[in-house]
Amino acid sequence: MSIYVILLLTIYILSAFIIFPLFVHFTKINREKDEKVPIYQITNHLYKITFISQFIIFVSAISIATIFLGSSATDNENDEKKFFLFFTIGGIAFAVVYIFNQIVVPIQNLLIFLLAFQRFLLYFYPRSEKYIVPSEKRFSCIIRWIYFIWILGFILYIALVSKCISAYIFTHVYTCPRIYSTINSAIYVTLDFLVIFSSLFYISILISVRKITSMSTSVMRTRPEKAIIYQTLILIIVKLLCLPFVLIEIDFLLISDINTNSIMNVMYYPFFIIDILTTPIVFQITYLFCNKTNLEVLLKMNFRKLKTWSIVCCGYTSSNIVNYQISNISGSISNS
């Protein structure tokens, strides 16, 4: 189990420190073209989720590192206040990460499933386009309602669990009905399985790939839509690769606390951790490498130069990257 944990953490660290700046850079460069795509509303929303999620985890990683550095420096009782400060920062960071992902990840999984279902209908039933492709205003309204309902349910769940914990503090008897956490875990795990199920829609489309090129509808005709398909399929592959970790974790939790946990509660924790660590990097990698133009620019960029990273981190306009490519090409010609 430790090997899988180390592997996932390594992947995430690489994503946060290397891939993420490139993802943001190329997303802003391609924004004008991406805005013309019918599913831009969903891809843009997923981009925002990925950006916020990575930023929060990045700050949390710094906080956790601060805790370890601070704890190693607390060799005497005079440093207890400093250690308490580090511990508080870490606790707040973990709380923010948990709450954000508890709210966002299930909705993200729901959007991936709905998008796959929409692509499936558009391919096999082109006449349904006017009914299942919402306007920007309507899509924004739908997203707000989904978030409102989910956040309301999450607040209710936290309130019920907090009430049980308060009662436990005074009575030392935990009487909270298991149904609260079971329902929460069941919804989360179900939405995770819906993402896996959504692959069937895309596989059906990919089997008919010869027909896709002659379609009059917008299915799989543009780079962002190809990115979404690849993102979903790779996300499923990653989840399947993480399955041994899930099974080991489930087996461990069932053996250690079989009387107080339902199977849904036990499945929730490994799925939650895997979603946090793998989903953002899958979205970023597929966006960068499913686009031929992005890939060509990446191969030409010299990452050993400080100028390259200054463009990536500070310059987001397409003119910057064009000038960079021209200078690279002219430099290679002069060297030859």
Describe this structure in words.
The structure is a single chain. With 336 residues, this protein is an all-alpha fold. It has one domain: Up-down Bundle (Rhopdopsin 7-helix transmembrane proteins). It has 14 helices and no strands. It has helices at residues 2-29, 31-34, 40-72, 80-124, 129-132, 136-171, 179-207, 209-212, 223-241, 243-256, 263-289, 292-300, 306-314, 318-335. Helix 1 packs across helix 11 (263-289) and helix 10 (243-256) packs antiparallel against helix 11. The radius of gyration is 23 Å and the shape is globular. The chain starts with a helix and ends with a helix. Mean pLDDT is 70; it is low at 214-222 and 316-336.
- Separation, N- and C-terminal Cα atoms: 51 Å
Helix content class: over 70%
CATH architecture: Up-down Bundle
Number of domains: 1
Q: In one word, what is the shape?
A: globular
The main pleated sheet reads as: none
Uncertain segments: 214-222, 316-336
Strand content: under 5%
Topology of helices and strands:
Blueprint: H1 2-29, H2 31-34, H3 40-72, H4 80-124, H5 129-132, H6 136-171, H7 179-207, H8 209-212, H9 223-241, H10 243-256, H11 263-289, H12 292-300, H13 306-314, H14 318-335
Helix pairs in contact: 1-3, 1-11, 3-4, 3-11, 4-6, 4-7, 7-9, 7-11, 9-11, 10-11
Keywords: Membrane, Transmembrane, Transmembrane helix
Transmembrane segments: 5-26, 46-71, 83-101, 145-170, 185-207, 228-248, 268-290
Protein name: G-protein coupled receptors family 1 profile domain-containing protein
